Amino acid sequence: MALPLLPDPFQLAGLLLAGGVGGFINTVSASGGVVAVPAMIELGLPAELANGTNRLSAAISTLTATVRFHQAGVIPWAKALQLVPAIVAGSLVGALVGSGLDPEGALLAVAVSLVIVLLLLLARPQRWLQGVEALGEELQVTPLLHLVMVGIGFWTGFISLGSGTMTLLALAWFGRQDLARANHVKIVLRAAGCLVALVVFTARLQVAWGWAVPLSLAGMVVALIGSTVALGEQASRWIYGSLIT
């Protein structure tokens, strides 16, 4: 497949806007791809390439947030690293499947994933706003949570859209952790899964680099702003509000 050349000025402006919004959502909540991927498709990039091109932005924004959260000392590394192998294994298989989608299949996967994200959020929204009194400060790592993370890892590699939301939901529901602290673990898991997927999509020539670079730069800059918001006292409400939006 011949990859598209550099975007025109209108497409570049759209990429910078989508990358910034996506980077903020990736950091403050999850699933910035629900903005970035449909935007790239609307700007003229084929769905199967948009799926791969978004992987660079997702990897950079989550890595940026991981560094920022680490500097703030809020990442429970011992707990997070226990779940990384499950996410990596699932992401590898999912990326191998997702990078082989035809244009129609990729477009359908994007549409379905957007619906799944909305349904997940509307299912039990009150749980997202509960504080440490209702849920625990320490993540409960169980065999069930590992199994769930393999499935989420598969979706991360396959289409990515909604995987951050699923990760947050799993950490809250199955790991019994409040939303703000779960977001710190989610960033680490997302970064690991996104890096694996990026390698696979790059190897299969599914990344349009002329589009991926401006999208990623915008996402990285705004991710620094988003990480400050995510560390604030009202993080849970920001997270839920940005997800619904």
Attribute tags:
single chain; 245 residues; mainly alpha; 11 helices; globular
Give a quick rundown of the structure.
The protein is mainly α and 245 residues long. It has helices at residues 9-28, 33-42, 47-72, 77-98, 103-123, 125-128, 143-158, 163-173, 179-203, 209-230, 235-244.
Shape: globular
Mean pLDDT across the residues is: 81
List low-pLDDT spans: none
End-to-end separation in angstroms reads 35 Å
Number of strands: 0
Helix content: over 70%
Biggest sheet statistics: none
SSE succession: HHHHHHHHHHH
**Count the helices. How many?**
11
Query: Structural class per helix/strand content?
Result: mainly alpha
- The fraction of residues assigned to DSSP E strands is under 5%
Q: What integer value in Å does the Rg equal?
A: 17 Å
